[in-house]
Amino acid sequence: ERGFNFRPIERMRRATSFRQQVEYGWDTTIESLTMVYRFLQKLGTQIPLTALGGPVTIAQAAGYSAYEGPGKLLIFLTMLSANLAVINFLPIPLLDGGHMVFLAYEGLRGRPANERFVVALHTIGFAFIVSLMLFVLALDFGLIPRNL
Questions:
Q1: What percent of the chain has pLDDT over 70?
Q2: What is the pLDDT of residues 88-111, one digit of tens each?
């Protein structure tokens, strides 16, 4: 309204070799993965739980990325895949990270954990994942106000 034009600063890095392209991709991926861990550490304290998004939010973000061009969409999909890999390796029973914890326990002890204990933890992990999905779907559909 007053003649100010605020736009985000965009920096474009151009690689001059295939090796440099791989390095840039690696650096960006590592930065994004550590950002996921930092986000998870702050979730519930500095970042409200209502900042989460489900499939609808992801589809909207993919749409915005696609609107900006196929390159942005591919970067978005790559980062989404990397983020899901990080979430999958969290030590939550039923996910791969939980299985890794059970395998480490078995390796240290020399025998598998009690089957009833494993089933109980898998049930708790399943309930957590289903609850999380219902929560983010409720956020997506506006059943829970975001108040961001």
A1: 99
A2: 999 999 999 999 999 999 999 999
- What SS3 class is residue 143? coil
Please list, residue by residue across 56-87, b when 16 or more beta carbons sit within 10 angstroms of its beta carbon and e when fewer do: eebeeeeeebeeeeeeebebbeebeebbeebe
CA proximity to 139, closest of 44, 64, 61, 57: 57
**CA-CA distance, 75 to 127, in Å (whole number)?**
32
The reported pLDDT for the residue numbered 6 is: 78
CB 63 within 8 A of CB 77: no
pLDDT single digits (tens) 117-140: 999 999 999 999 999 999 999 999
Q: Is the dihedral of CA 125, 129, 130, 134 positive or negative?
A: positive
CB 135 within 8 A of CB 57: no
CB count within 10 Å of CB 10 equals: 5
Say how far apart CA 29 and CA 36 lie, in whole Å. Answer: 11
Residues 94 and 126: beta-carbon distance below 8 Å:
yes
